[in-house]
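Supplementary Methods S3. Complex input for the fe (ii) ion-bound model.
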Amino acid sequence: MELALDRNASLIEWDEPALSQFGRKPLRLMHQVHRHELFSDDALARLLDNPARGDYYVNTMNIDAHDTRSRREGEIRDLPGRDVLRAVAEGRLWILFLRPERADPRYEALLEEIYREIASHQPGFSAKHLKLSILISSPNIQVYYHSDIPGQSLWQVRGRKRVYVYPNHEPFLSQPALERIAAGEAHEFSLPYDPSFDEHATVYDIEPGQMLHWPLHCPHRIVNGDCLNVSFTTEHFTPGIRRNFIVQCANNVLRRRFGWEHLSQDTTGPGYWAKFGLAAAWKLSGSRSRRRKVLNVDFRVDPEAPGGVRDIEPYEYHE
Ligand SMILES: [Fe+2]
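Predicted complex, serialized as structure tokens:
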């Protein structure tokens, strides 16, 4: 199939009724970014040719059950990008490629174009700290239940997947758990999940040319269809999301250091400014920056190994 953007059309098909719910309810919109040459096999293979260690995560996990303990960290080494793609297509792998703009600045231009378009349809929308990450994942693989701190959209490029989006309040989202994730003390996947939550999820089967956007912090989980999946996420902070982040970090200190409960989520007023000061002091003390993640890497991507997973002598990688 010839991949080509229609330059006379917008990137997103703006559906006016849905637009009024942007950020308030889970939303599915049509887009044409899956036709962009930056997501062709050649472009993806170029990114995966000897990627810098800090630019990706590769994981394998149990596909039959929601078992976060089965999640393993791997590495990509001495393998042409084409073979990495083949290992994903035939195996049981999930690759998150970060900061593709470092390899090709056109990804940054695309990201900026996307946000310019969103802003032109959302009066007053202004976002910073924009990020685009590419997800390349095997048939039937899962992304377990988790919540993300920035505003986020998921764009489907190739393959099909089922996405469960849950309400962003108790019991689906535990406030202390969210605060620990915001403060960098817990992994996103540490969020407690119960299968009974599914009754309350908004469930989407998405295909190439569809994107999802959900309200801030909505927990979500993903199950791939029986096919290779290529997607990307876009992330952003608006001034409101930034203030919410500060409140979560301050609440974490108040709850864990001082034992406070029933903490307000207000992002305005004197209470907010006190938390702003507390979060700034906490940040200045270096508490967040010292908590770097350590990955226990125990496999290498190898298309000739079962599941694309070659066991190696485990080692620690410090981010
Ligand atoms: Fe996510």
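The CA atoms of residues 7 and 59 lie 36 Å apart. The radius of gyration is 20 Å.
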